[in-house]
Design a protein that fits this description.
The chain has 11 helices and 15 strands. It has 350 residues and is an alpha/beta fold. Strands 3, 4, 5, 6, 7, 14 and 15 form a 7-stranded mixed sheet that branches. A 6-stranded parallel sheet has the order 10-9-8-11-12-13, with helices on both faces. A two-stranded antiparallel sheet has the order 1-2. Strand 14, helix 11 and strand 15 form a beta-alpha-beta unit.
Length: 350
């Protein structure tokens, strides 16, 4: 099979022909039809998150946002067969532990993460362990490009807003950083009936945020962001989202929340912070502001998400701004270094 392979951190990926994977008894092999290039892939390419226990063994085929067709299954797989159209949550679960049984399979990680601990969707074929637990069947009217678009950033934003923050119609939601996760959060919060303020330093990204439903857009280079958000929201956002993961987004996000509100931490940090961001604890205590982390999206939330997508209530594919060949992956990752991408970029050719 053809794949883009990470051989050395921060160096161009190598496009190689690799042996086709063979499923074990409980595994499935997926023929990838579309795979997103996510900022998490950029972090992996940079060698980040070792401080959080994430260690890639190289060489590695990245890619954790994909949709495709089941090519082969092991003899113990019962719920899927060749020809089924599927996607895969990037966090691979066991289906048997306390987290899985309580509906929190996103924090099980018994098998690690696809594209990090196992080779992923930058290859034309992907082996998925524990297939009966980790495959998600796609509705007929959800195409593979849409599956790739919702594969990480979108489903992460959905879980953060719908499950963790429990956003209600009419609430103000401030989204700090409108890259892939942030733009997804804007669309989803708007779809849930919230009023959204988008914050970024790029006018082009703010333009896209308005197109996805943001009622106000704030360029953070223009002065006191917290003051401006509080003015727009008449006292502060009910929910504020750090969709990037830095001091420059997390702290103003917390400070933009009104009394009793919720800050949602979705963005993960990079080399500058190495997982450590100071937060205004006293202000949070005095105002009872909740700091809520959110990771991925449990399998129990996929039916709701996919039903909304299938019904046209949410549209992840609208966030896809570019499709590329697998040979173009390195140039996309390089552009991410300078925050030079907008929306989602999806591999559709191998």
């Amino acid at each position: 099979m053809k794949a883009a392979v990470l051989v050395q951190f921060r160096e161009p990926l190598e496009v190689r022909e690799l042996p086709d994977p063979t499923p074990g008894p409980g595994d499935a092999v997926i023929r990838v039809e579309a795979c997103g290039i996510c900022r998490s892939d950029w972090h992996a390419w940079q060698g980040d998150w070792t401080w959080a226990g994430v260690q890639l063994n190289l060489p590695r085929v990245l890619g954790h946002e994909f949709g495709g067709v089941v090519e082969a299954v092991g003899e113990q797989v019962r719920n899927f067969k060749p020809g089924d159209r599927v996607t895969v949550p990037f966090h691979l679960a066991c289906g048997r532990c306390e987290y899985c049984y309580s509906g929190r399979s996103n924090i099980c990680l018994a098998y690690g993460a696809i594209g990090f601990h196992f080779d992923g969707g930058y290859g034309k074929l992907v082996m998925v362990p524990n297939a009966d637990v980790n495959l998600v069947r796609l509705p007929e009217n959800v195409d593979f490009g849409t599956a790739a678009a919702l594969g990480c950033r979108y489903m992460t934003a959905y879980h953060a807003l719908a499950d963790r923050a429990v956003v209600r119609p009419g609430e103000w939601v401030a989204v700090f950083g409108v890259g892939g996760v942030g733009l997804s959060a804007v669309q989803i919060a708007s779809g849930l009936g919230a009023q959204v303020v988008a914050v970024d330093i790029s006018d082009e990204k703010l333009r896209l945020a308005r197109a996805e439903g943001a009622v106000e857009a704030v360029n953070a280079t223009g002065g006191d962001v917290v003051k401006r958000v509080k003015q727009i929201t008449n006292g502060g956002a009910h929910v504020s989202v750090d969709a990037l993961g830095s001091v420059n987004t997390a702290v103003p996000s917390v400070l933009s929340v009104r009394k009793g509100g919720r800050h949602i931490q979705v963005g993960l940090t990079g080399q500058q912070e190495k997982g450590m961001i100071p937060v205004p604890v006293d202000a949070m205590v005095f105002q009872e502001i909740s700091f809520i982390p959110s990771f991925g999206c449990p399998a129990t939330s996929y039916p709701g998400l996919l039903n909304l997508v299938a019904a046209g209530k949410l549209n992840p594919s609208r966030l896809v701004t570019r499709t590329v060949r697998v040979e173009d992956v390195t140039s996309v990752l390089q552009a991410m270094t300078e925050f030079g991408t907008t929306g989602f970029t999806v591999i559709t050719e191998w």
